Amino acid sequence: MNPTKPRPVWLILLAAGCIVGMAMGLRQVMGLYLRPVTQDLGIGREPFSNAMGLANLVWGLGAALSGAIADRYGAGRVIASAALCTLAGLVVMGMAQSSTGLMVSGVLLGLGVSGTGITALVGAVSRAVPAERRTAAIASLGMSAGIGGFLAFPYAHLLIEALGWKTSLIALAITGTAMVPMAVVLRGKPVSADGVVRTQTLPDAFREAFSLPSFWLLTTGFFVCGFHVSFYSVHLPAYVQDKGLPAWVAVWALMSVGIANIIGTWLAGKSGKYMQKRMGLSFIYFARAVLFAAIVFMPVTPVTVIGISATLGLFWLSTIPLTSSMVATFFGTGWMSMLFGFVFLSHQLGSFLGLYMAGILYDATHSYDAMWWISSGLGLIAAAFNWPIKERPVARMLVAAAE
What we know:
By secondary structure, this protein is mainly alpha-helical. The chain has a single domain, classed as Up-down Bundle (Growth Hormone, Chain: A). The protein contains 18 helices and no strands. It has helices at 9-28, 34-41, 45-73, 76-95, 99-116, 118-128, 134-163, 165-176, 179-182, 202-210, 213-242, 247-271, 277-297, 302-313, 319-331, 336-365, 369-386, 395-402. Helix 3 (45-73) runs parallel beside helix 6 (118-128) and helix 4 (76-95) packs antiparallel against helix 8 (165-176). The chain is globular.
């Protein structure tokens, strides 16, 4: 089978960005459903939080597999199949009558985003551009995710207000069908920007990655990123209303995260030219630690909630271009989606733990204070883990470059 003729870079980036924006937007709005779903079904917050945690865990487990398939055969079929899972997950949640239905929905949503999110597309984007443009190209995916969230939050909020939470999920599913035809652009066997087809085998790629200490430091730090973003995005709407503020405050706060994320991710993509990526990651995690601690001490008003959210948005998905491009620096782009998928599994384990702990601690204490402090402490730990990373290619890459 001959490699498919490369498509224009702009078309690949546009299609990938639209798919990621829609997929991540649909994922991020789930926090808006926490209160209406749990109140209507008469259950605590723990079951809903666990369902979203399960979605993140399945997302992580499926990311490496989806990435390996996309690296081997192309991202098109992965995207189309995963998009259908996302649509099914939204419909099942809308029909849920108990926590069991929410868990089934969580599994389907996790499978869906594992093949339509950044992890499945990072390899296709990385291979489409030269090495010097790689970080910026990957940053465009993170920016697309921010734009998706910015548009999805008011859209979902209006649908919930106008149609009720159940019917609004059906409307979101109908909207998500747009991902399927976009997958056509990304079909075909992967080829790198220089026309080289991968020669390294999958087992060799795993052995090489698992023997590199810096890969493990990077992977461990990314665990904290998942803990932070999932807890904040899912539980902020409930936290805001618990403090007596209207629901629109959380909508605007999460929209501000999306807007600021566009700026922060763009800056992260540019920063790779001027400083080592490990330093950028350490700074991001340290800044998050400060912001989470600030939440405990600052008064809860619309201005402070939206202001902190906007600042946090600068450090939201800005970890992705730095983390994923460092994987490419270590190992090249041959198995890029698969290896970043493994790193992302750590991210999703953090997401699962963050949501699981938030649900349990809130139902036990009726407060999120412990979670703010835990999030702050983990930010400091992640900053420390990223600092000693050695940002250089493995021996195989150096030998290939010398030939």
